[in-house]
């Protein structure tokens, strides 16, 4: 969880593919949330974050910036129940602390779970993990 130039470069995929209704698994510092929510092509952003402490640190700041455009939910990406009939144009998964091929199984699980309710999705550093 950082806002270094390398970390931000990793999020370019999410920024450029986000349109319509977006779901982000993992809040972190909110770098992806901020970049995505600023886009005029994005109507709404739902963030699923497991840590209540992380939410408490960032929620007020982002709600002031983006008002009703964002919703931050304290839940687990693996067990979150999408509202019936809800579909996302793009889903971004960023719940890992490090870049590691050990994350690939969780990425596959999330992609299967959210594939039914999204037009497109990706995971933080998935390509790099697949190359290791």
Report the β-strand fraction as a percent range: 15-25%
Unreliable stretches covering 5 or more consecutive residues: none
Taking all residues together, what is the mean pLDDT?
88
Fraction of residues in helix: 40-55%
The N- and C-terminal alpha carbons lie at a distance of 21 Å
Count of helical stretches:
6
Oligomer: single chain
What's the SSE blueprint?
Layout: H1 5-10, H2 12-17, E1 20-25, H3 31-38, E2 42-49, H4 52-66, E3 70-74, E4 90-93, H5 104-115, E5 121-123, H6 126-131
Parallel strand pairs: 1-2, 1-4, 2-3, 4-5
Summary of the model, kept short:
The protein is an alpha/beta fold and about 130 residues long. About 40% of the residues lie in helices and about 20% in strands.
How would you portray this structure in words?
- The chain has helices at 5-10, 12-17, 31-38, 52-66, 104-115, 126-131; strands at 20-25, 42-49, 70-74, 90-93, 121-123.
- It contains 6 helices and 5 strands.
- The chain starts with a helix and ends with a helix.
- With 132 residues, it is an alpha/beta fold.
- The mean pLDDT is 88.
- Helix 5 (104-115) links the parallel strand 4 (90-93) and strand 5.
């Amino acid at each position: 969880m950082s806002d270094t130039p390398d970390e931000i470069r990793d999020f370019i995929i999410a920024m450029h593919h986000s349109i319509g209704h977006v779901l982000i698994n993992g809040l972190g510092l909110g770098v992806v949330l901020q970049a995505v929510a600023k886009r005029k092509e994005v109507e709404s952003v739902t963030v699923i974050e497991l840590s209540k402490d992380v939410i408490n640190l960032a929620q007020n700041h982002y709600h002031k910036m983006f008002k009703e455009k964002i919703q931050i939910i304290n839940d687990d990406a693996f067990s979150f129940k999408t509202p019936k009939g809800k579909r996302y144009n793009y889903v971004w998964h960023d719940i890992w602390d490090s870049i590691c091929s050990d994350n690939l199984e969780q990425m596959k699980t999330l992609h299967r779970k959210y594939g039914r309710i999204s037009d497109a999705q990706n995971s933080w550093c998935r390509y790099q993990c697949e190359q290791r």
